Each structure stands twice: as structure tokens, then as C-alpha cells.
Amino acid sequence: MATNVSAMIRFSDGTFTYLRDTVTLNTLTELKTDASGDLNIAGDLSVGLANQGKTAVSVLCKVQTDDATTGMFGYGYFTDPQGKIIVPVQGGGTFTTGLPSLKRPVRMTTGVKLQVFASALTASSSAMSYANLSVYCASGMSDVFSVLSEDGVAKALLNKDGNTIGEALAGQTIACTIATFASTNGVADVGIADGINGFYLEDSQGQLKMMYNPCKGNNQSPTPWVEIPVRINQNDTLQVLANT
Description:
Largest sheet: 5 strands, mixed
Number of strands: 17
Helix content: under 10%
Strand content: 35-45%
Radius of gyration: 18 Å
Shape: globular
């Protein structure tokens, strides 16, 4: 059963483009322009190459599993020609609607890409899910932290370079976040013994600084931003402690 992800993008001049690709679940995949031939779009091109000089202002990503609704949006973002994250995007599953504005516009140029991580819906009683936190900072800096959860074991969320949130964002103030966890029953669905029902941010002394309650990534509304500012220090850690 294949899964594809599509992205609807509006530019500042009022024009649109449409990206769509088959993806491997739990793997970051670049979306390229739709190659179906049904739209007047040059297919199978990176978004920056296909739309040079335009500025993306609104994006919605949708995850679709063939003949099913089990595909979940984990996270997505634009990257610059050097592979650095520019800004996260919002998304959801089959029935997600809307066209949310980006936290910052993205100028299209050769090398700019849109990449998305999608997962299948899991049952907490049978499998663990990826915990994902997309971050946009007051400075305009962005990052994404992710880890595959483990039953009864606290796991630190890391960015694509293998850094903790404290190592990656020391001195930054998080302005807003998107948290996702593709499980039918949430992060901790069995009693209160060995799970915490949300991602938790702690300082070097173990003091709780913030908690992020994730969505499944398959609502009718796009994955929501949680707009609460948090100052990050070098030894801060973000963790998930799931149970089945």
C-alpha cells in the first residue's frame, strides 16, 4: 500500500504550484512538482528550480495512503541550497483543509527544496511512533527534533545533525512549535506508571520548563502552531517517554 504526499503552495504574486511524490514512511523525502500531466506544471522538479524568483507565502502538505486514511503528517520544511532548514510547514492527513501562512516567506531559487516526513498511524498497544517537534525561533531560526519512541524509556529528541535542543538552539528563544505523534492512543495510554503524555523540556537540573502535547497529524485542520515563548539554554533536553 503506497503513500504519497502533496503540497499546495501559494506565492506572493497570487500564483500556485502543486508538488506530489510517493514517499517511504518514516523517511524524510523531497517533494517535487507534480508529474501527472493533469496540470500545466513542469513535473519532477525541485520547488526552487521550478519557481525561481517567486516567494512562497502559504503551504499545506497532505499525506494520502492508497485507499486508506492511515497516512499521518509528521513534519516538513523548506531547505536552502546548503541544506539548512529555512522554515517548517504545516500539514495533515487526507481530509486536512486550509492553506496556512508560513511563519516567514521563502524566496525560490535553485537548490531550495521542500521535504516532508510522513508516518503510518500506529496503535500504542502494538508499535512505537516517532515524536516530532518543529520549532520556529524569535530570531527567524528554525529546526526540527525527532526520535522513535521506546516503551517505558525516556528518549531525547534530536535534530537532523544529531544535536539535542539545547545544543542546537542555545541562546535562542522558541516562538512557536508544532508537535506530532502518529498514534491512535497518544504517547502514554496505559495508566500512570511509566509514561508521560507529552514531550517535556527540562533544564540541566531536571526542572520542567515546558510540555508539548502532540497531535496525530491527521486532523481536518492543519497541524497547529503552539505559540508560547521559551528560552533555550545549552544543557536543556527535550524528551519523550511513551508506554504501550
